């Protein structure tokens, strides 16, 4: 899988499938592998582009402040480098914040947008949590860090599956591309500094806002705010929590594909 240099960093990316381009933007603590469980549903219909945000996975990790606008410009530059003019955009959590900035700064590149478990601006509880998540990596080991974060990501039902959480923690501990502590700090501060509340009305692309009913990290009220602010937005609430891309990938992919089909030209040969 290749890398391209954009805006002073090397971005690691992967392209699979054919059809209209669809780019997936991962969130905090996640690289492109986070989308693995929904890839089988998307690849038969779309040219799916995944990449690691600056600081994550196999992309460069400069030890300097990050911003959503900067990471959105990374996405735009990546698309230019691989010769793609316009895409459907999906962003999960922090990735949805990046997607909003992409739609605002580069509207000509965005065919449609799906904001999954995302937000325009955090409330006090959310901000306190994200600040803590940015500060913790230099104070605790990765195993304890995961134990602290995962209850905010997954539902009670998921926790009740024997061995599931232990398996995820073991995977994270042994993952060869774990992020550096300073990256998590810089990403957390980018999340805290991001606020599109007053600019949502400038987003003109068709938008699906998708959230889990049991999401306690980015609760339904955050998605309702996005839907009310974006003129062409529709809201879908599914069972599940912040991590429903892992808990129920088929259900999430089904809703995504139903939306994308409305904004994907039909092949005249079929």
Automatic annotation (TrEMBL):
Residues 21-133 form the AB hydrolase-1 domain. Coiled coil: none annotated. The chain crosses the membrane at residues 22-43. Keywords: Hydrolase, Membrane, Transmembrane, Transmembrane helix. Residues 202-263 form the Peptidase S33 tripeptidyl aminopeptidase-like C-terminal domain. It comes from the Bacteria. GO terms for molecular function: hydrolase activity. PANTHER family: AB HYDROLASE-1 DOMAIN-CONTAINING PROTEIN (PTHR43433:SF5), HYDROLASE, ALPHA/BETA FOLD FAMILY PROTEIN (PTHR43433). This is Alpha/beta hydrolase.
């Amino acid at each position: 899988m290749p890398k391209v240099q954009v805006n002073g960093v090397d971005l690691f990316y992967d392209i699979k499938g054919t059809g209209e381009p669809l780019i997936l933007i991962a969130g905090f603590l996640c690289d492109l592998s986070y989308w693995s469980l929904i890839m089988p549903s998307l690849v038969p219909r779309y040219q799916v582009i995944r990449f690691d945000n600056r600081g994550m996975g196999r992309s460069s990790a400069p030890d300097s402040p990050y911003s959503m606008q900067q990471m959105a410009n990374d996405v735009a530059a990546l698309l230019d480098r691989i010769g793609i003019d316009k895409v459907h955009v999906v962003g999960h959590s922090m990735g949805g914040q990046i997607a909003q900035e992409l739609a605002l700064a580069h509207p000509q590149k965005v065919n449609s947008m799906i904001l999954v478990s995302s937000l325009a601006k955090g409330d006090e509880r959310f901000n306190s949590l994200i600040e803590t998540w940015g500060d913790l990596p230099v104070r605790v080991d990765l195993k304890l860090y995961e134990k602290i974060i995962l209850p905010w990501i997954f539902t009670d039902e998921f926790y009740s599956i024997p061995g599931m959480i232990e398996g995820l923690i073991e995977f994270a501990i042994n993952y060869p591309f774990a992020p550096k502590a300073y990256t998590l700090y810089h990403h957390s501060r980018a999340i805290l500094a991001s606020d599109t509340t007053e600019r949502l009305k400038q987003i003109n692309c068709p938008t699906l806002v998708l959230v889990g009913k049991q999401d306690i990290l980015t609760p339904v009220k955050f998605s309702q705010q996005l839907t009310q602010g974006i003129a062409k937005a529709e809201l879908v609430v599914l069972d599940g929590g912040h991590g429903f891309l892992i808990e129920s990938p088929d259900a999430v992919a089904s809703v995504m594909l139903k939306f994308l089909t409305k904004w994907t030209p039909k092949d005249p040969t079929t």
